[in-house]
Write a structure and sequence with these properties.
The protein is mainly α and 118 residues long. It is 49% helix and 10% strand. It is built from 5 helices and 2 strands; from the N terminus they run ααααββα.
């Protein structure tokens, strides 16, 4: 992941990070993978509203960027699990204060009805 997607175009670290995790679903995917590895169907269930196409695309991008690991098990039927790499774990740690800020200032200290449990 060491090479920038837009070499020389970033104005700051936040700009660079947002290039990797921009959009609604990538951060929620990371948050869903925070506690344990999940299969594709599990992620669909904990992220209501995400389409299969968007989820598959985002997981692929996060894998290419070294944030998510895709493990394919040699079983019948095939089993694939997604988990965070050490880079993904460090990214979630950086996102935790943002989640706390959202709970306090947007949700009024109460988690919303539809949330990823953290």
């Amino acid at each position: 992941m060491g090479t920038a997607r837009r070499p020389g175009a970033y104005v700051c670290g936040i700009d660079a990070a947002m290039d990797l995790i921009g959009g609604k679903w990538k951060v929620l995917i990371l948050w869903a993978l925070d506690e344990r590895a999940c299969r594709f169907g599990e992620l669909r269930r904990v992220l209501p509203g995400v389409t299969e196409k968007v989820l598959a695309s985002h997981l692929r991008e996060l894998e290419v960027d070294g944030i998510v690991h895709r493990e394919v098990y040699d079983e019948v039927p095939p089993r694939v699990e997604y988990s965070l790499t050490s880079l993904g774990v460090s990214l979630n740690a950086a996102l935790a204060p943002l989640g706390a800020w959202g709970r306090e200032h947007v949700l009024g200290g109460v988690e919303g009805a539809h949330h990823v449990p953290h």
